[in-house]
Amino acid sequence: MHGGDIYRNSIVSDFSVNINPLGVPDEVQWVLTEAALHANKYPDIVHEALVGDTAALFDVSEQTIVYGNGASEIIMAICHAINPKRALLVAPCFSGYETCLKGVNPKCKLLYYHLSEENDFELHHDFVERIIVEKPELVFLTNPNNPNGKLIDKDLLDDIIETCDKTGAVLVVDECFLPLTGKDMQRSVIQDIQSHKSVIALRAFTKSFAIPGVRIGYAICSKEAMADQLKSHLPEWNLSIFAQMAGVECLKHHEYLEKSVKVVEEERYFLTHEMKKLGVKVYGSDANFLLFKCNNFELKQQLLEYRILIRDCSDYEGLAKGFYRIAVKQHNENEGLISALSDVLF
Q1: Are 194 and 64 in contact, with CB atoms under 8 Å apart?
Q2: Using one digit for the tens of pLDDT, what is the confidence trace for 15-69?
Q3: Which of 6, 19, 105, 134 has a Cα-to-Cα distance from 26 of 20 to 30 A?
Q4: Could you tell me which CATH class the domain 13-23+254-345 is placed in?
């Protein structure tokens, strides 16, 4: 279901999880070490410093911000709060939405909009028509989409938001990978989120700051009432003092993200170019990961012999055997992957 299973494999290079290739910033690592000195205290139950800094960064009301133990906890809270009878998902996309929807309401009708392989798995305008016709109560979008990494066209996303406003659907836009595209400020729905009825922007420090083990994510809601609903479905003290202190520090380091974007762009080009030379079909991506297809159905297992882990995407709705996803990592690891692929495929 997910990447990152390093606990049952002996791995040197984990390409199965899409975290920032630069790793944890030194300042954040230091704060995590310092947080151990405060482990004898309860964390702030309302995350005051974290919420205040987030509100200032995005120029939104503090009352519209909801923090969680990773974005996954917030997704579950959204599903509990809305408890939809009908939900619309893109396929392929992150499997966590489906898991939460089924867990909250096994009778929820899951509606899939299947992206076309021939169109590089891009979202098209007929998605708007699906919302109008199907009348879902909850719509999930990932921008950029996972596993293919394509950004949603801005005009199309604006139309989707307006359509959801008119139909009454709650729209969740998962932007967890957006800061690593270099187009965060141009493409985020947060810019004018409070002018809409029921939009939720979902984010996490997991990918951008390479701290999946810390577990910290947040939502920015268009209305305070929606944020209050989500909070009512979250446990008290759901963030550790480690997560709170790390989050506050992460919000200070925009220069780290700018540097990361440059590395991602250069290495994404390198991987795409080299994999195509090996005869692999690589799909266009704006993110820090690539979806590719080859006719070797045992590729994941074979790369484990080189202690390299990749993501087999055959369990995604809308994909079949032969589809794989890799993270964009630093150059030496990317070279190692290309070398291993060359050995395995030839």
Answers
A1: yes
A2: 999 999 999 999 999 999 999 999 999 999 999 999 999 999 999 999 999 999 9
A3: 6
A4: alpha beta
Phi, psi of 147 (to 5 degrees): -105, 5
Residues of the chain with CATH 3.90.1150.10: 13-23+254-345
pLDDT in tens, 286-340: 999 999 999 999 999 999 999 999 999 999 999 999 999 999 999 999 999 999 9
Query: Which run of H or E residues covers position 112?
Result: strand 109-114
Beta carbons of 134 and 164 less than 8 angstroms apart: no
Q: How many CB atoms lie within 10 A of CB 202?
A: 26
Mean pLDDT across the chain, nearest whole number? 96
List the beta bridge partners of residue 86: 109
The pairing of strands 170-174 and 199-204 is parallel
Phi, psi of 15 (to 5 degrees): -90, 5
Q: For residue 274, what are its two tokens?
A: 């080299």
Go through 94-113 and write b for each residue having 16 or more CB atoms within 10 A of its CB, e for each that does not.
bbbbbbbbeebbeebebbbb
Length of the chain: 346
Retrieve residue 151's tokens. 């950004």
Long-range contacts of 155-164 (CB under 8 A, 24+ apart): 156/123, 156/124, 156/125, 156/127, 156/128, 157/187, 157/189, 159/125, 159/128, 160/127, 160/128, 160/131, 161/189, 161/196, 161/199, 163/128, 163/131, 163/132, 164/131, 164/139, 164/197, 164/198, 164/199
Q: In which band, very low, low, confident or very high, does the pLDDT at 229 lie, cut at 50, 70 and 90?
A: very high
CATH 1.10.340.30 fits 42-250, yes or no: no
Residues of the chain with CATH 3.40.640.10: 42-250
- Burial (CB < 10 A; 0-12, 13-18, 19+), residue 287, is buried
